Amino acid sequence: MKKKFIKLFELFISIAVSVGFIYLFYVIIGFDKFVSFFSQLSIINIFLAFVLYTGSYITRALRWKIVLSIKEFKKLFKITAFNTVFNIFLPFRTGELSFFYMLKKENIPFSESAISFFSVRIFDAISLFAVFGFSFFLFYSKPFFAILTLTLMPFSFLVLRYIVSFLKHEKIKEFQNTKLTLKNISVLYVLSVFTFFLKFTAFYLILPKGVDLSFIQAFFASAAGDLTTILPVHGIAGIGTYEGGYAGILILFGVDKEKALLASVFVHLFMLLGAAIIAGFSYLFLRK
Fold it and tell me: Which stretches are transmembrane (predicted)?
């Protein structure tokens, strides 16, 4: 009964966040102005953005190839596409369960899928904080610290790996020795960082001409938006929470409120549609 109440409360919060943001957007921007910005979208930029966004799925699929016994790229891409779309649209990170379900269908034991999953998610977190720090320092015109952040962040995983090495679990030790070699750790980190660079560059390209953000501003905001995915509660399909991170960081650093909100909505819409299209393609053409 208590768990059911908590779930209902979380659902209520998610709906309230999304509805609250839509109302706030209507008051500040208005739907008429939002629609008028669609005429400023570039078809070429949309195409390039989708290519880059698809590229971020490819780099994510390549990471699974390193940590899983599945080596067929089509299967890994399909798993990545479905897991991503479920994560985006389902509340409270329940979409992550799709990963274990799909690997079970591929006869991958839970011990392997769980260790691989948490390892890659740790790389997600480390690389996201690295990219956020990188864009933060570039935002303040400090390229040396930006490069230093990207260079030093992977060492945090090496520290974590050292701590975990004290665990006596046989499967974890085997995974560390065979999968988490220094070479694989380096490749996983580079692929993770590159994933965010592809994704955030795509988000910059999708902005209409009237939303005059610089590349660094848009990149920094995208990193902040992605950081909201670690929150325990999100708006429905991330509506409200993602925009809060994206637009909020820009407004905090002095960017025009209207410009920041418009940018956040266009980016989030592209992400939702892009994820749905890629998952639909995977369902139609990569099922077998």
Answer: 12-31, 37-55, 114-137, 144-167, 187-207, 260-286
In angstroms, the Cα distances linking 116 to 14, 66, 105, 232 are: 29, 9, 16, 22
Residue type, 150: L
Query: Read out DSSP for 162-193?
Result: HHHTT---HHHHHHHHHT--HHHHHHHHHHHH
What residue ranges of the chain have pLDDT lower than 50?
Answer: none
- Torsion over CA: 260, 262, 264, 270 (sign): negative
> Residues 229-239: pLDDT tens digits?
877 666 676 78
81/238 Cα distance (integer angstroms): 17
User: Which pLDDT does position 168 carry in this prediction?
Assistant: 67
Yes or no: say if 88 and 275 are a contact pair by the CB < 8 Å rule.
Answer: yes
Torsion sign across C-alpha atoms 66, 72, 74, 79: negative
DSSP secondary structure letters along 197-241:
HHHHHHHHHTS-TTS---HHHHHHHHHHHHHGGGSS---GGGTTH
Exposed (0-12), middle (13-18) or buried (19+): which is 3, by Cβ within 10 Å? exposed
